[in-house]
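Two proteins follow. First one:
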Amino acid sequence: MSYTMIDRKGIVSFLVIAFGITYAIEGTLILAGFRVTEIPPLYGQFIIAGVMWVPALATVLTVKLITREGFGITNFRVGALRPYLTSALIVPACFIATYALTWLLGLSQPDWQLADFRALLASIGADTSTMPSPALLLPAMFLASLFIGPMINGIFGFGEEFGWRGYLLPKLMPLGKFKAYTIVGVIWGLWHAPLIVVGFNYTGYPILGIMGMVGMTTALSIYMNELTLRNRSSILAGWIHGAFNGQAYGIWRILFPNVNPLLGGVTGLVGITVWLVVGLLEVHRGRVVAGGSDD
């Protein structure tokens, strides 16, 4: 595919707006002292949640004010129900595999008694004496991550996905699947760079953490890109993003509180490998069903 076939004006405009607004907001927060500690300041959490909608804003501004092409390219549709159900099972299964491997490889041990979680709550003045036992709390948290996580987190996830897989991915597809998928993954990872520098996901590894994030988002993108394009739905991408975040920032961080983020867990080499394998399997499945109705 030729580079002359891509819409450089639209792509560059989208990226300048998305990165410009995001980096300006997060840079201001960081200069004001914001850091991603175990429990960041509440005001910062709300602002960062809002920033997840910046890629969607960049898409709207680019389409309405710069390229004036309409929103057809974004695949703003729900699509079939089946991929929502299958991804809601596949995403947790990938997390189970990731943390089982992390445990088996000796990279972390599960905190079955939730001692670290209790200590964290106690540090902010919470009364932990009334907490349910881990035998009740862990299953409840896992079920909540399955059914509630994708819906709540998906609202914010769609803010990103309307940009990354709704606008940017289709614009890059003339380059071919490999290049388009790789570029989207790298850009998605770099977009998180300011927060990673101050502790997000890779506390203590500001530079290697950015590289790790790029690796994770690139691997995860393969699976997400395949389903988004095949089902022609950026809303589905938001759902998958929500399912992922519901797992990533819930039960698994509580159950495995001490993991080297570069090696184990979802952010490390283990998680990257799991998602790379799952993504490539999804690519293969897409080739098998090509030409027929899928999901």
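Second one, unrelated to the first:
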Amino acid sequence: MMMCTQLALWSVLWLNSVHVIIKCYELGSESKNGALISSCKVVDVVIKVGLTICL
């Protein structure tokens, strides 16, 4: 249950950071920085998977 409470907070952060993630992808694409793109994907996926489990 605690995990879902934390994920609820994360989901709010994620919703607020969607534009940040998009910007992250753009920066990664512009600079051809594979590591940056990968970390954007990891953050994005982890939060989505966590939300799916809790919802």
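SUMMARY FIELD: The mean pLDDT is 79. The longest helix spans residues 2-31.
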